[in-house]
Specification:
Radius of gyration: 23 Å
Shape: globular
Strand content: under 5%
Structural class: mainly alpha
Largest sheet: none
Number of strands: 0
Amino acid sequence: MGRCLATLLVWFLGIAMVIPFVWMLSTSFKGMNEVFTFPIEWLPTRPTLKGYTALLFGKVPYFTYFLNSVKVSLIAVIGTFFSCTMAGYAYAKVNFVGRDKLFLMKLAATMLPGMVTILPTYIIYSKLGLLNTHASLWLGYFFGGTFGVFLMRQAFLSIPDSLIESARLDGAGHFRIYWSIAMPNVKSSTSTLLFMYFLWSWNDYEKPLMYLWTPKLFTLPMAVKSFSDDQSQNYPAIMAANVLMLLPIMIAFVTCQKFFVESLVGSGVKG
C-alpha cells in the first residue's frame, strides 16, 4: 500500500512539473486570440508558426545570440571537463604534501555567499580587460568549479587503489592512468558533471547582465529578455523563444539520461 501511494505521489509531482512546459509549447503554436481562452486548449485548434517567425526573423538577432550561447557553453564545458576531472583525480589518487588541507580550503571557499565575490570578481575582470567579452562568462567555469572538483574526487575515490598500483607497476604515469584507466570508470559522474555545468552556463543570466553591454555579444538569456521587452504582448512569440532556449537542454538531458540512471544504480549498490 505504501509503495502504491509513493508511486502515485511521484506520478502526480511529475505531471505537475510537466504541465507548465506543455502549456508553454502549446502556446507557442497559438494565435494571439487563443492564448487566454478558458478552458485551456492544450492542442491548438488552428496551429500557427507566427510566434516562431516573429522570433527568428524579427528585430532581435536570435541566431547571433544562439551562437554566442553555444560558444560560451562549449568553452565552459571543455574547460570544466579537463580541469575538474584532472583536479579530482589529483585530490583522490595523487599523494602530495598538503593535499587534504588544500581540498578543505577549496571546499571552505564555497561557504562564501555569491554576493560577496561579485564586486572583487568585477574589479579583477576590469583590470584584466575582460569586461564586455565572452571570456568573462566562461572563465569562471574553465578552471574548475568547486562542485565539479568535489564530484569527480568522490567518483575517483570509488576506484580501487589496487587498480592504480597495478598500472604503476606496468610503467604507466599519472596522466596515462588518469586518461586510460580512471576516466573510463567514472563515465556516469563525468556525464553528470558536463550536463550540470552546461545547464548553468547556458542559463546564466547574471554574468551577461553584469559584464556585457554590447548587444551583439549577448547570450540567449539576455536575448529572451530583450525579445520579451520588444514583443511585450506577443505571448506566442515569447513562449517560442523559451521553447527554443530549452531545446538544447532537453537534448543534452536525454543524451546523458542513461548515465544518470547508471550513477543512481551504482550509488544504491554501494550503499
